[in-house]
Amino acid sequence: MKKVLLIILILTSLVVLAVQLKPVKKAVHTVVASNETPSLVNSDSLTITSRVNTPIGYKRVAYKSGSFAEYLRNYKLKPFGSKIINYDDSEYFWQGGHIGILEIPVPKNGLQQCADALIRIRSEYLWDNNRKNEIGFNFTSGHYCSWIAYAEGYRPKINGNKVTFNKTASANHSKANFYKYLNLIYMYSGTLSLYNELESIDDTNLHIGDMLIKGGSPGHIVMICDEVINDNGDKLFLLFQGNTPAQSVHLVKNLEDSDISPWYDLKKDATIPVSNYTFASAKFVRFK
């Protein structure tokens, strides 16, 4: 009997010891993973390139100083946590889809919507870099309206889809008149005109400044504002957008892939949710 009790006691001790020494790999793994995953967002930074870190294994693609790409990368941001504001100074109903607000005013006339915001950013870059003769866009009717002609006093006369340009104003090359020109473009251009006007780009040749677009009423458009690449040649991109109603231009989160957010893996035939819009049958385009 004593031998039986002794055997039971020994077996019990072994079971208790085995439980105490049981591996806790899952708990250790979780702690290590959380410590090794850095935040991709710097809340104290005020430009696009400094606000967002590169994912592990990636580096930023180099661009020339003075290029449109570098202009976008270094675009100034409002302090982290700033809200998306509509043109009438009201707060946009949903604030959960962005990690930065660009320092670009929203006109009170309500005209600067999604396509218009990107038209403005491109136009201001050309203006600031003494390339004013390149500023021009098609109306939805297909008629081309250039800043140079507008500055010389030519104004459109619009009758349905028929547009003629006549000199009806004095020449005025001022910055204030430039913004009046942009208001005209906002009225008669949009996602549909850009969709038809701009060069289509394959998803294997995307660069900063290219845009993902769905033309129509309503349509939508977002712009690539940063680009990283890894040793395998895989690329990820940052996106910003304006929206309807006219509102703050903002740097969007990737709500579908929190592991790389706010970076995006962009593929032409993929469904790409961006903030509160989902691109399905869309294409990539590039300013001339």
Please outline what is shown here.
With 288 residues, this protein is an alpha+beta fold. It has eight helices and 14 strands.
What order do the SSEs take from the amino end to the carboxyl end, as H and E? HHHEHEHEEHEEHHEEEEEEEE
Q: What is the residue-mean pLDDT, rounded to a whole number? A: 87
Radius of gyration: 27 Å
Q: Alpha-carbon distance between the termini? A: 96 Å
Count of discrete alpha- or pi-helical segments spanning 4 or more residues: 8
Indicate the low-confidence ranges by residue numbers.
Answer: 1-37
Tell me the strand percentage band. Answer: 15-25%
> Main β-sheet, in a few words?
8 strands, antiparallel
Query: Helix fraction?
Result: 25-40%
Structural class: alpha+beta
Q: Give the overall shape, derived from the CA principal axes.
A: globular
User: How many extended strands?
Assistant: 14
Query: How many structural domains can be distinguished in the coordinates?
Result: 2
Architecture overview:
- The chain is an alpha+beta fold and 288 residues long.
- It folds into 2 domains: 2-36; 48-286, no CATH class.
- 28% of the residues lie in helices and 22% in strands.
- It contains 8 helices and 14 strands.
- Strands 1, 2, 7, 8, 9, 10, 11 and 14 form an 8-stranded antiparallel β-sheet that branches. The chain has a two-stranded antiparallel sheet with strand order 3-4. Strands 5-6 form a two-stranded antiparallel ribbon.
- The longest helix is centred in the N-terminal third of the chain and has 19 residues, at 2-20.
- It is globular, with a radius of gyration of 27 Å.
- The relative contact order is 0.16.
